[in-house]
Amino acid sequence: MSILWVFIILNFFAGDIHELGRPGMLEQMMSGTIDGGVVAEMLMTRQRRSRH
């Protein structure tokens, strides 16, 4: 089962690296809007909310 997770994670990394090669993708990532969709800052920084 852990080999499956490794395979999935490596596919995510390969997809991200492949997307960075597209013209204009880095600028879209930096602006927070990718192909017209807004990416929330919380997703990019992976911040956790404190539980009280």
From TrEMBL:
Domain of life: Bacteria
Protein name: Uncharacterized protein
